[in-house]
Design brief:
By secondary structure, the protein is an alpha+beta fold. The chain has 35 helices and 40 strands. The protein binds one RNA strand through helix 3, helix 10, helix 18, strand 21 and helix 22.
RNA sequence: GCCCGGAUGGCGGAACUGGUAGACGCGCCAGACUCAAAAUCUGGUAUUGGCAACAAUGUGCAGGUUCGAUUCCUGUUCCGGGCACCA
C-alpha cells in the first residue's frame, strides 16, 4: 500500500474542520500557552514560500505544547489596511476593500493547504469596522490621557485638568521644551492663569500633554503627485514613481507621545526573552544618551562689534551678562560655597524654577556689583531673595534695605520671601515671582539701555526675542574645544541670525537640503555646509564662535544644533578640515592633527578649569559650572522621536475626532466605529490633505452634535491596527470592550511570538507602548506584550537568468554567453531544474512568447545564470507553496521548510532538496506497510497474527534517543536538526527491520507537530481513536540509552590521530597508562615521554609532546 | 553614513557550555533490479598526493589567546536586514 498523501491530507483537513479540532476555549483547567505569528499583510502577489517559514515553526511549537498538556491559543488574522492596496486602486481602479477581500481569500486558501492548527473562529482583520472600532477607541484613550512623570504612568487627562486648576503646571512641566504660552510668557502657568485662559488656549495646552496629540511635522511632499511619500518612495530627491521632485513640507500631523515611555521601553527590555540583537536594535532606536544642554548667547549686535569686547583675556569678560565688578571672582567663590550649602527653602525654590521652568533663565547665588543675590532673573531684571535666620537681626535688615536701594538704582527689582512662605506654599511664591516678572518685563523695556547689563541679549533690536542658541552635547568635557557651531539647515534661528552678506548663500544651501531625504543626509559622505555670518559666545572663554549650518545636523534630534569639537568628533573634524576652520587641540599629544580623538580614556588639555581632568570628571565639572552660571543644564536625551500617527491616505482607520475653531474634539465612544466612507475614486486632496478631504459631505456628516466642525481627513498608519491585535484574539467577538479583562488576565502575555526582524523597531516598539498605556490605564494586567520573541530569517529568491543574443531571438547558455553580446533576462525559476532550463516549458512560458526561439546549448543543455535577490513577482523568482503542496503534500512541504536550516537564518529558497524529505516520509510509511499491506507487529501474539515480540534494547535505545533529541530540538527551535533526527531514527529502525507498534506509535506522536497529517493517519491505522493531538507525549527514560564505555578520540598536540574505547569510570592515571601503550601514540612520541596527557571525561584525550 | 546579523564541501546545513569539522539531506559517481527508463535499494563522495596504509591542507581574510579555536579576542572584506509614510 502506497503513501497516498493527497488523499490522507484532504481527509484529515476535513475531519479536523468537522470536529473543530483546533477550537480553543478561554475556560480550561490546563495551563495556558499563547503562540502568535506576526499576521500578514495580504498582498496581491499571494503567499510565497517565504511567508510560511515562521508559521510552520509556530505551528510545530503550538502542537508540541498542546501535546504537552497546554491549552494553546494559536490564532491568525490579517493586517489589512495599508498603502499597497491604495496604490493598486489608483493604478487599476479596483477599490481597496475589494482587492483586500480577494487577497485575503487567496491567502486563506493557501494557508489552509499547509494544515495549520489556527483557531479560525478568532480571525481578525484590521480593516473590519468591528475591529477598528476598538483601534479608534484605544486612540481615544490615548488622546484622553497624559503622562504623569511623577507617578511614571499614563493617567486620564481630567486629572491633569484638576491639577492645573489647583496649582497650575509648576509640578508638571510641558514635555516639549520648545513650547511657548501665548504672549511669549514661557511654559509655566499658575492656577489663576489657567483659569483665565480661554478655551482655545486651555485646549492648546492640554494638547501638549496628550499621549495622542496633534502637532506639525515635516513630510516628503511631491507636488506633481499631489501626495506625501514614504522615505523609500523617494530616490535622490525625486519620486520613485514618475521621477518628480520631492521637497519637505510642514503639515499638521497626529503623533503618539512615545518619548514619554522611552525610559520604560528601555528598562522593561530586561523582562522579556528576546535575542540580544533585537534588544540592541531597540536600545539604539530609543537612543538614550546623557549630557548637557548648553545655551550659547549670540554675539550681538553681529559682526561690527566683535572687536569691542575689551579685556577678553580676563575670565568671564566676554560673558553676555557681566553684572559684577572686578572683585567678582572672589565673590563668585562665596557664591559657590553658598550653592553647595543651600537652606531647605532655597533648595525647594530652586528645584521649582531651575531649568527654564519659568520660561526664563534663573541664576542662583549670583554676584551683582559686589553683592551676592540668592536668585537672579536677569532677562527680566528681577532679583529674588530669601531670608535666612540671621536676616532677622536688625543690622542685617538695614544692610538688606541698603542693598535693595542699590539694586533699584541699577534698575533691578528685588522681591523678598520668608523661608516659611516658601516651605509652606511654594506655588504661591512662584505665582508671585511670575507676576513680578510680568510687571518688571514691561518696565524693563525702559531700562534696556542701562550700563549694568552690557551685551544683554534682547537689548539689540534685531535679536529681540531670541533667547540664544541651545545645543545638546554628550561630551560637555570638550567644551573648551568648540571651534564652531552647526545648526540644522531648517533650524528656526537660521533665518534670524544670518547676516545680509551671507543670506544668498544660506538660502541656496537651505533649498538644496530641503530636496534631500533624511536618509540621504545621513548616508552622505560628501561634506557640505555654509557659514551664516553669525557668532555665538563661549560661556567660559567668551570667545566668539562662528555659526555654520550643515545637513549632517538633524533638526529632529536634540535641539537641532551642536557645538562642534573637531578634536573630539570625527564628523566635526572632517567638517573643519574641509572648510579650513582652525582646530583647537584639547587633548595634547594624544591629538595628532590627523583625526579626531575617539578614545574616552584621556585627560583634557588646554581646557581652563578642567585641564588635567579625565573625561567623566570633566563632564561633571562642566555641567556643574553651567548649571551654576545658568548657561546650561544636565540633560538626558533620546534619539527616538514621537511617532507620527497620521497618514495623508485613504485606506486606514479614520480618526474619531472633529475639528472646530482649531480645537480637536473626540467623538463620543458611542459613535464608534467611525466608518471609513466608500469612495469611488481615490485621489489626493488639496494642500497635502488625504483623499478623504475630497469628501466634504462625509467630513461634516458627523458634526451636528458639536454644532458644526469638520472631521479629520487623514487616517491612521498601518501600525495602528497591528499595535494591539494580539489582545483582540483573546476575545475577538466582544462588542462591548476591545478585550474583556477576564480574557486578557487568562491569556496574559504572548508566550511565543514569531516574525521577521524587519519589524525590530517599528511594530514591536509601538505594540509595547500601547500595551504599557493600556496597562497604566488599568485595561490590562501586563506591561509587555511579547514574552519570548523568535525571529525567522528572510527567505530570499534565487533568480535564474537566460541570455538573449542582442538583436536576435536566440538564447545562449550561461557558459558560452561571453562569446556573444547578450542581454540578461529573468526567467521563471519554476521552469528551471537546478540550473538547467526546461526548454519545452520555456517555449510555452508567457503565452508562447518564446515559442520559436533557438538555443545555443552547452553539452546538450541550456544552463541558466543564478543570483540571490529579494523574492518578488517581477523577478520571476517566487515559488508558490501551493505547487509544492500539490506535488509532495503539506507534510513534506512543512518538513522541508524546516529542514532548510535554522529558522532564524536568512537563506535563498531552493526547491531542489525537497525530494529527500519526501523520500523520508515514504520510508516512514514503509515501516507500517509494504506493497501487500500492513506489516506492523504487536507485542501481544494475537489477534493481529503479526506478533513481533518485545522491543529489543537497540530499538528502545533508538526510540529514547529520538525522544530526547526531538524534545531538546523543539524546545530550542532547532527544527532543522529535529527533522534530521527523525530521518536518523527511521533509517535505523528500517535497518533493524523494526515494525513494532510499541516503538512506532511513540515515533508518530513525536512526529505530529512536524507532519500532522501522516501522523494522524497512521495513528488511526494502528487502531487508535480520537486525535493524536490528545495522545500522551512519550516520556524519555535514560536507562535505555545509558552507555558503559565511550570511544575517545586521541589527539597528539590537538590533532586527532587515533581512537581508544575506554570505560566511562576510568581514572586519569589509567588513561595515561593506556595511552602510552598505544602503538599510534608511541609512533608520534618518537621515544620521548609525553609532556602532558589531557583527559576530559566524555569528551577527548590530548597528548602534548 | 549609522545600527543589527551572516560567511563551514559542488549545494542547504551539523558540530548545543573551547574538545573527533562536515551529522542529515540534495547533487554527483559506481553497482543491483529492468529490454530500457522511472521508482526503489546498496556502496562511495572536503581538497591534494598515494593502489592502500597514511600524510599534508582546510570553517571569508590577517593576526592573537589556548594543550586544543568553526566556537573567545583584535582588525578587515564581502553579503543580507533596518534607519521613523512599504508592511
Amino acid at each position: 500500500m502506497e503513501y497516498n498523501f493527497r488523499e490522507i491530507e484532504q481527509k484529515w483537513r476535513q475531519k479536523w474542520k468537522d470536529t473543530q479540532a483546533y477550537t480553543v476555549s478561554n475556560e480550561s483547567g490546563k495551563p495556558k500557552y499563547y503562540v502568535l505569528d506576526m499576521f500578514p499583510y495580504p498582498s496581491g502577489a499571494g503567499l510565497h514560500v517565504g511567508h510560511p517559514l515562521g508559521y510552520i515553526a509556530s505551528d510545530i511549537f503550538a502542537r508540541y505544547k498542546r501535546l504537552k498538556g497546554f491549552n494553546v491559543l494559536h490564532p491568525m488574522g490579517y493586517d489589512a489596511f495599508g498603502l499597497p492596496a491604495e496604490q493598486y486602486a489608483i493604478d487599476h481602479g479596483i477599490h481597496p476593500a475589494a482587492s483586500t477581500e480577494k487577497n485575503i481569500n487567496t491567502f486563506r486558501k493557501q494557508l489552509d493547504n499547509i494544515g495549520f492548527c489556527y483557531d479560525w473562529n478568532r480571525e481578525v482583520r484590521t480593516s473590519d469596522p468591528k475591529y477598528y472600532k476598538w483601534t479608534q477607541w484605544i486612540f481615544l484613550q490615548l488622546f484622553k490621557s497624559w503622562y504623569n512623570r511623577q507617578t511614571d504612568k499614563a493617567e486620564p487627562i481630567d486629572r491633569l485638568v484638576a491639577i492645573f486648576e489647583k496649582e497650575g503646571n509648576i509640578n508638571h512641566p510641558v514635555p516639549n521644551s520648545r513650547f511657548e504660552l501665548p504672549g511669549g510668557t514661557g511654559q509655566v502657568f499658575t492656577a489663576t492663569q489657567w483659569a483665565a485662559f480661554d478655551e482655545f488656549t486651555q485646549q492648546s495646552v492640554l494638547m501638549e500633554y496628550r499621549l495622542a496629540y496633534c502637532g506639525f511635522g515635516e513630510v516628503n511632499w511631491c507636488e506633481a503627485l499631489g501626495t506625501v511619500l514614504a522615505n523609500d518612495e523617494v530616490i535622490n530627491g525625486v519620486s520613485e514613481r514618475g521621477g518628480h521632485p520631492v521637497v519637505k513640507k510642514k503639515l499638521r500631523q497626529w503623533y503618539l507621545r512615545i518619548t514619554e515611555y522611552a525610559d520604560r521601553l528601555q528598562r522593561d527590555l530586561e523582562t522579556v526573552d528576546w535575542s540580544d540583537a533585537m534588544k540592541e536594535m531597540q536600545t539604539n532606536w530609543i537612543g538614550k544618551s546623557s549630557g548637557a544642554e548648553v545655551e550659547f548667547s549670540l554675539a550681538s549686535p553681529p559682526t561690527p562689534l566683535l572687536g569691542e569686547r575689551g579685556g577678553a583675556a580676563s575670565p568671564g569678560a566676554g560673558k553676555s551678562y557681566k553684572t559684577a565688578d572686578n572683585n567678582w571672582h572672589i565673590l563668585k567663590e562665596f557664591g559657590r560655597e553658598n550653592r553647595k550649602n543651600p537652606t531647605p527653602a532655597e533648595d525647594l525654590l530652586w528645584q521649582h524654577i531651575r531649568n527654564n521652568k519659568l520660561g526664563f533663565k534663573v541664576r542662583r547665588q549670583h554676584t551683582v556689583r559686589g553683592y551676592i543675590v540668592d536668585f537672579a532673573i536677569l532677562e527680566a531684571g528681577l532679583i529674588v531673595e530669601l531670608d535666612g535666620e540671621y536676616h532677622s537681626e536688625e543690622q542685617q535688615r538695614i544692610y538688606d534695605e541698603a542693598r535693595t536701594d542699590f539694586l533699584k538704582e541699577l534698575g533691578l527689582t528685588l522681591i523678598r520671601f520668608r523661608n516659611e512662605e516658601v516651605l509652606q506654599n511654594v506655588e504661591e511664591v512662584i505665582e508671585k515671582i511670575k507676576i513680578a516678572i510680568q510687571e518688571q518685563k514691561q518696565n524693563s523695556v525702559n531700562a534696556a539701555g542701562l550700563p549694568l547689563l552690557p551685551g544683554e541679549k534682547g537689548s539689540g533690536d534685531e535679536a529681540a526675542g531670541v533667547r540664544g542658541l541651545r545645543v545638546y552635547t554628550t561630551r560637555p568635557d570638550t567644551i573648551f574645544g568648540v571651534d564652531f557651531m552647526v545648526l540644522a539647515p531648517e533650524h528656526e534661528l537660521v533665518e534670524q541670525i544670518t547676516t545680509p552678506d551671507q543670506k544668498a548663500t544660506v538660502d541656496e544651501y537651505v533649498a538644496y537640503v530641503k530636496s534631500r531625504s533624511e536618509r540621504e543626509r545621513m548616508a552622505e559622505k560628501k561634506i557640505s555646509g555654509c557659514f551664516t555670518g553669525a557668532y555665538a559666545v563661549h560661556p567660559f572663554t567668551g570667545k566668539n564662535i562662528p555659526i555654520w549650518i550643515s545637513e549632517y545636523v538633524l533638526a529632529g534630534y536634540g535641539t537641532g544644533a551642536i557645538m562642534a569639537v573637531p578634536a573630539g568628533d570625527e564628523r566635526d573634524h572632517k567638517f573643519a578640515q574641509h572648510f579650513g576652520i582652525p582646530i583647537t587641540n584639547i587633548f595634547g599629544d594624544v591629538y595628532t592633527g590627523e583625526e579626531a580623538v575617539s578614545d574616552k580614556n584621556v585627560t583634557l588639555y588646554n581646557s581652563g578649569f578642567i585641564t588635567g581632568l579625565p573625561v567623566k570628571e570633566a563632564s561633571e565639572e562642566v555641567i556643574h559650572a553651567l548649571e551654576e552660571n545658568g548657561d546650561g543644564v544636565r540633560k538626558i536625551n533620546y534619539k527616538m522621536r514621537d511617532a507620527a500617527f497620521s497618514r495623508q491616505r485613504y485606506w486606514g482607520e479614520p480618526f474619531p475626532v472633529i475639528w472646530k475653531d482649531g480645537i480637536a474634539y473626540p467623538l463620543d465612544e458611542s459613535e464608534l466605529p467611525l466608518e471609513l466612507p466608500h469612495i469611488d475614486e481615490i485621489k489626493p486632496g488639496k494642500d497635502g490633505e488625504g483623499p478623504l478631504s475630497n469628501n466634504e459631505g462625509w467630513l461634516t456628516s458627523f458634526s451636528p452634535s458639536f454644532g458644526g466642525g469638520r472631521g479629520e481627513s487623514s487616517t491612521m498608519p498601518g501600525y495602528a491596527g497591528s499595535s494591539w491585535y494580539f489582545l483582540r484574539y483573546m476575545d475577538p467577538h466582544n462588542d462591548a470592550a476591545f478585550c474583556d479583562r477576564k480574557a486578557s488576565d487568562y491569556w496574559n502575555q504572548v508566550d511565543l511570538y514569531i516574525g521577521g526582524t524587519e519589524h525590530a523597531v517599528g511594530h514591536l516598539l509601538y505594540s509595547r507602548m500601547w500595551t504599557k498605556a493600556l496597562y497604566d490605564l488599568g485595561y490590562i494586567g501586563f506591561f509587555e506584550p511579547f514574552k519570548k520573541l523568535v525571529n525567522q530569517g528572510m527567505i530570499q529568491g534565487s533568480s535564474r537568468f537566460v541570455y538573449r543574443v542582442r538583436g536576435t531571438s536566440k538564447f545562449v547558455s550561461h557558459g558560452l554567453r561571453n562569446q556573444y553580446e547578450t542581454d540578461q533576462l529573468h526567467v521563471d525559476v519554476n521552469i528551471v531544474d537546478g540550473v538547467e532550463l526546461d526548454i519545452e516549458a520555456f517555449k510555452k512560458w508567457r503565452n508562447g512568447e518564446y515559442a520559436n526561439t533557438e538555443f545555443i546549448l552547452e553539452d546538450g543543455k541550456y544552463i541558466c545564470g543564478v543570483e540571490v535577490e529579494k523574492m518578488s513577482k517581477s523577478k520571476f523568482n517566487t515559488v508558490n507553496p501551493d505547487d509544492l503542496v500539490n506535488k509532495y503534500g503539506a507534510d513534506t512541504f512543512r518538513m522541508y521548510e524546516m529542514f532548510l536550516g535554522p529558522v532564524e537564518q536568512s537563506k535563498p529558497w531552493d526547491t531542489k532538496g525537497i525530494e529527500g524529505v519526501h523520500r523520508f516520509l515514504k520510508k516512514l510509511w514503509r515501516l507500517f506497510y509494504d506493497e501487500n499491506g500492513p506489516i506492523w507487529t504487536d507485542t501481544a501474539p494475537s489477534p493481529s497474527e503479526r506478533a513481533g515480540g518485545e522491543a529489543t534494547a537497540a530499538e528502545l535505545k533508538i526510540l529514547h534517543q529520538t525522544i530526547k533529541k526531538i524534545e531538546d530540538d523543539t524546545e530550542r527551535f532547532s527544527f532543522n536538526t529535529g527533522v534530521s533526527a527523525f530521518m536518523i531514527a527511521v533509517n535505523e529502525l528500517t535497518e533493524l527491520q523494526c515494525h513494532k507498534k510499541e516503538i512506532l506509535e511513540n515515533i508518530l506522536v513525536l512526529l505530529t507537530p512536524y507532519a500532522p497529517h501522516i501522523a494522524e493517519e497512521l495513528w488511526h491505522q494502528l487502531g487508535n481513536s480520537g486525535s493524536i493531538l490528545d495522545a500522551p507525549y512519550p516520556k524519555f527514560e535514560e536507562k535505555y540509552v545509558l552507555e558503559t564505555s565511550k570511544t575517545y578520540p586521541v589527539a597528539i598536540n590537538g590533532k586527532t590521530r587515533t581512537e581508544l574505547n575506554l570505560p566511562l569510570d576510568i581514572t586519569q592515571q589509567e588513561v595515561e597508562k593506556l595511552v602510552q601503550e598505544n602503538d599510534i601514540v608511541l609512533k608520534w612520541l618518537e621515544g620521548k615521554p609525553p609532556k602532558k596527557v589531557i583527559y576530559v571525561k566524555n569528551r577527548m584525550i590530548n597528548v602534548v609532546v
